[in-house]
Amino acid sequence: MNARGALGRYGEDLAARLLTEAGMAVLARNWRCRAGEIDIVAGEGDALVICEVKTRRAGAFEHPMAAVTPVKAERLRRLAGIWLDQHGGPPSGGVRIDLVGVILPRRGAPVAEHVRGVA
């Protein structure tokens, strides 16, 4: 795994822990299909949560939250539909797309921010 892949994996590990601590159940990580990849699929009560994780080093070009463009949001909605088709359809609580942004400072603990319903 290269440095970028290791950075992404670290951010996803932090995000999974954050979501679990918030009471969600992680159902899948790095779920792939022909159309792309979902970083984390989680359940929260009777809702399904599709979670995109973006990890950046402090001082990087853009804040992780800026990474979900309209094109990216549409791709996440399409991937959510494929997941639902393959896993029995939408749950009674509906589907939500969240983002976890992780910033790694040069020193000190990483900062993770969870935003619900980004797309």
Topology of helices and strands:
Elements: H1 3-21, E1 25-33, E2 36-44, E3 47-57, H2 70-86, E4 95-104, E5 111-115
Parallel strand pairs: 3-4
Antiparallel strand pairs: 1-2, 2-3, 4-5
Family: Belongs to the UPF0102 family.
Protein name: UPF0102 protein F0344_08720
InterPro entries: Restrct_endonuc-II-like, tRNA_endonuc-like_dom_sf, UPF0102_YraN-like
Polypeptide structure, described:
InterPro entries: Restrct_endonuc-II-like, tRNA_endonuc-like_dom_sf, UPF0102_YraN-like. This is UPF0102 protein F0344_08720. Belongs to the UPF0102 family. It comes from Streptomyces finlayi. Pfam families: UPF0102. The chain is of the alpha+beta class and 119 residues long. It has one domain: Trna Endonuclease, Chain: A, domain 1. It is built from two helices and five strands. A five-stranded mixed sheet has the order 1-2-3-4-5, with helices on both faces. Helix 2 links the parallel strand 3 and strand 4. It is globular and about 45 Å long.
Short structural description:
The protein has 119 residues and is of the alpha+beta class.
List keywords for this structure.
single chain; 119 residues; alpha+beta; Trna Endonuclease, Chain: A, domain 1; five-stranded mixed β-sheet; 2 helices; globular
Residues in helices, as a percent range: 25-40%
How many angstroms does the end-to-end distance come to? 30 Å
Task: Quickly give the structural class.
Answer: alpha+beta
Could you tell me the CATH topology label. Answer: Trna Endonuclease, Chain: A, domain 1
CATH A-level architecture: 3-Layer(aba) Sandwich
How many distinct helices? 2
pLDDT under 50 segments (min length 5)?
Answer: none
Main β-sheet: number of strands, strand sense, barrel status?
Answer: 5 strands, mixed
- Could you name the CATH class? Alpha Beta
**Main sheet strand line-up:** 1-2-3-4-5
Number of strands: 5
Work out the strand percent.
Answer: 35-45%
Q: Whole-number average pLDDT?
A: 91
